[in-house]
Amino acid sequence: MMQPPAPRLSAHGAEIPGIGLGTSGLGERCAEIVATALGRGYRHIDTARKYGSEPGVGEGIRASGVRREDIFLTTKVSHENLHAIDFARSVEQSLAALGVDYVDLLLVHWPEHSTPLAETMAALARAKREGLTRHVGVANFPSALLEQAFALCPEPLVTLQAEYHPYLDQTTLLAACRRHGLVFTAYCPLGRGRLIGDPVIGEIARAKGRTVAQVALRWIVQQGNIVPIPRSSNHQRVVDNFAVFDFTLSDEEMKRIGGLKRPDGRIANPAGRAPAWD
């Protein structure tokens, strides 16, 4: 049975569905998982050139029978391709792999220090002006770099995508997004499974009659202006993860989960090229 549609969050003309499906690492199962998600109510699918999941995402979209215009589709340009010529080529390759004429959101996947940010932001804006994407944004930018990107991009950014879950304190980055009217898109919202055995979240989940994943995702969406994009290769978990808009957490439950942040909470931290995190 299809769930009711997720609420949409607005940012600079974009209307972003309040939960999405991440597709990193889905491999050969990507198409069937995407088709399942769309059949159960998801309308926001996140992929990237680097994931290798774009062909599977495109296949899943076509298999689902859901109209392309009803789907909010995101892809990303990898850090190796941030010079203007490479950027344009990456976008064309992504569209070909997905089998679509445009994406709804195009992101710079990671910052890259040897490429002038102004050049990258100009290339990002050009993709929008050429109709290859409806909206633009960045991923994995700390707050200082986000300020620069926002100032340099000729088109309005609509989102920052970054890691976020109860173990990782993103107070500074969230404040920067709210200051600029951006939606925060949260990847690894379940801490790549690390939250599943957490006793605090487990206790709240049992009291609510919900899964640990549902409680962790609810904690994110209930903060407002944040879109989680959980990934799972399990069909039932994909369905369960969408069902987070029909219950609420109390202020005390929100506070308890928010108190789980810890210094070693970050997961995505590539050696040698990670930015200076907040």
Describe the 3D structure.
The chain has a domain of 186 residues: NADP-dependent oxidoreductase domain (TIM Barrel), CATH 3.20.20.100. 38% of the residues lie in helices and 17% in strands. It is built from 10 helices and 10 strands. The strands form 2 sheets. It has an 8-stranded parallel sheet with strand order 3-4-5-6-7-8-9-10. Strands 1-2 form a two-stranded antiparallel ribbon. α1 packs parallel to α2. The protein is globular. It starts with 7 loop residues before the first strand and ends in a 20-residue tail after the last helix.
Oligomer: single chain
| SS elements, strand count | 10
Mean pLDDT: 97
CATH homologous superfamily placement of the domain at 9-187 and 226-232: NADP-dependent oxidoreductase domain
Number of helices: 10
Instruction: Give the fraction of residues assigned to helices.
Output: 25-40%
Percent in strands? 15-25%
Q: What Rg is obtained from the alpha carbons, in whole angstroms? A: 18 Å
CATH architecture of the domain at 9-187 and 226-232: Alpha-Beta Barrel
Task: Indicate the CATH topology of the domain at 9-187 and 226-232.
Answer: TIM Barrel
Write a concise synopsis of the structure shown.
By secondary structure, this protein is an alpha/beta fold. The chain is 38% helix and 17% strand.
Any descriptors?
alpha/beta, two-stranded antiparallel ribbon, 38% helix, 278 residues, 10 strands, TIM Barrel, 8-stranded parallel beta sheet
Task: Summarize the SSE layout with pairings.
Layout lengths: L7 E4 L2 E4 L3 E2 L7 H10 L4 E3 L7 H11 L7 E6 L6 H15 L4 E6 L8 H13 L3 E7 L3 H10 L4 E7 L7 H10 L2 E5 L11 H10 L3 H10 L4 E3 L6 H8 L8 H8 L20
Parallel strand pairs: 3-4, 4-5, 5-6, 6-7, 7-8, 8-9, 9-10
Antiparallel strand pairs: 1-2
Helix pairs in contact: 1-2, 3-4, 5-6, 7-8
